[in-house]
Amino acid sequence: MKSVKPNRPTIIDVARIAGVSKSTVARALSDASNINAETRKKVMKAAQSVGYERNHLAQSLRSGRTGMLGLVIPDIANPFWAEVARGAQDKAAEKGASLLVFSSDWDPVREANHLRALRHARVDGAIVNPVEDSIDDLGRFGMPVVLIGSSAERFPELSSVGSDIVQGVRLGLNYLENMGHTRPAILAGPLGRLARVRFMRVVHDYFIERNIDPAELLVEDGEYTVESGTQAMKNLLKRSGDRPICVFAANDLMALGALLAVREAGLKCPGDVSILGFDGIPAGVFADPGLTTISKPARKIGDRAMELLLDQVSGRVTHERIVLPCQLTDRGSLLDVKDTAPKQMSSTG
Amino acid sequence: MKSVKPNRPTIIDVARIAGVSKSTVARALSDASNINAETRKKVMKAAQSVGYERNHLAQSLRSGRTGMLGLVIPDIANPFWAEVARGAQDKAAEKGASLLVFSSDWDPVREANHLRALRHARVDGAIVNPVEDSIDDLGRFGMPVVLIGSSAERFPELSSVGSDIVQGVRLGLNYLENMGHTRPAILAGPLGRLARVRFMRVVHDYFIERNIDPAELLVEDGEYTVESGTQAMKNLLKRSGDRPICVFAANDLMALGALLAVREAGLKCPGDVSILGFDGIPAGVFADPGLTTISKPARKIGDRAMELLLDQVSGRVTHERIVLPCQLTDRGSLLDVKDTAPKQMSSTG
DNA sequence: ATGAAAGCGCTAACAC
DNA sequence: GTGTTAGCGCTTTCAT
Fold first, then answer.
1. What global pTM score does this model have?
2. Which of A2, A158, A244, B70 makes a 20 to 30 Å CA pair with A301?
3. Do A241 and A209 share a structural domain?
């Protein structure tokens, strides 16, 4: 075993073989216009013969662009975010770009680290769903950034893609109301998170409009995980007088966790407790009954965000704030109690 | 708005400010031994003051190492693979490396593209689960590679991490047998895929040992997706005389798809049909009853694979073939028919 | 302990 | 059309 040629061939090797200068090789490789067809063919053959492969590092160093993009999301193991990642991934691949995916695990420190890693890798741009609102640096991040989710509100100067929370929450609340659930318990996200604030604001407004005091609503906090959903539901089920018969969860994982708690308590869904989720993850199909939920267009969010980012990277300055509508997916976890309970017209009060 | 300094500061800027040469700056930054403590402090302060950030591209070009690793898996939207990715991701982050994750979508062409992208990005190494066995180039891939999954069999010279299929399948088959299911229908992966061959080989051997002709078994093919699982189960349920009362699926997604088909047909699981899965994805918890399955240590697979890869990258040549055991997770989708049906001792035949 | 200088592999003016 | 030359920002001898 003698190492014949430890290093990969460079344009210089190719140039020598083809009998031209290295700039000619470079031109041939980047199919520039000003080059003889014959010469190109010759160069290409030479390149082929030594198994030449462009060194992106050198190319990037020179051109200042790496062809790499970044994506920072809270949790790649959450199917919703996995879908977003796929959408972004696919679009990037389509355009010949590579995507660096980072999962912050809802941890601001890890998020900061990932953001730093992206800068160091010299990515051409990034799509970010900031966990904390403490991220004030995004504005001067020094590269094209597209936001996903609630934080868009905090950085109106940045492009963003998200689902229409207002429309989605109202859609859900209205659907519940039509089924006779006029005062659902709310399973909200973590206190202090902007997404929670936005969610609750819509809920608040919705009930105010109907002359119902939002303070009457039962609200439990969760961490967007199955476990926290189970725990929150357990808390609700502990209540004696006002045990809720309907729960609206801020995401599907918590909704499914709640379902588990209901089942564990020996109760039936939707017989005893109706559950409405938010996200539209595939796992909701498998529950029995299936989880009724407000579906966000996850794949599309990733796709559009990447599109915006690529536009920005290539100089087309398109400041856009895209809001995609949510959809209701009824799979049976809601019981219609409209005709069961005596309907009380709360018109004038 | 006048642009003060469009370009990021380089070591030259830092050097000028600190009043030293650029090599001194480089030394300070890479905490070399041969440098005065005072000088270093001075340099660091200068770097700080201009917000200097190392250019990894230049560094990589010089040193030949990028600090980036690659991961190529079939489907990031499949929770099992998402977990593998997380395991790898976390370990990489722990060591200060970045991970490029690619999803091939079971498509050999996309896989080849991704592999090429990795080479172009000059990653220091890669973890791969080859979709097709057509990938013969892996051996001469020109960089450290760690294999995940069945293909390890094809490339014994490469390091690999995987779950113990033989142990896992036998564990499942044995568990079924103990519950009285002596001839489960098999919901296998796609024809031609090595993973399928390995799975079926174990099944084959298992029944041969028990003097049962494996050809008697009902076998349906699937694509590792929910939809294909549903379709396969529908096919099985169509049978008149020998409709199976037990199905062993090669992955959880197909198992859950089968569950959907059973439900849709108005049948009960496990009352009418028992279902056993393979993977151990979280979604199996939500089905009612929960999906009983053979759990693979997904997170750990990613973690160990990354560990091996990092070892290889840093020169510690550790050719290892790690096989992690599977575990049985009983969540109730199996009915014990041992005492129901007249038990026939198949001892001597 | 520090500086000078030579590249890593490529691109982009600029000549001819 | 093609060759020459000068870097991109950094690391790494080799002097001093």
1. 0.88
2. B70
3. yes
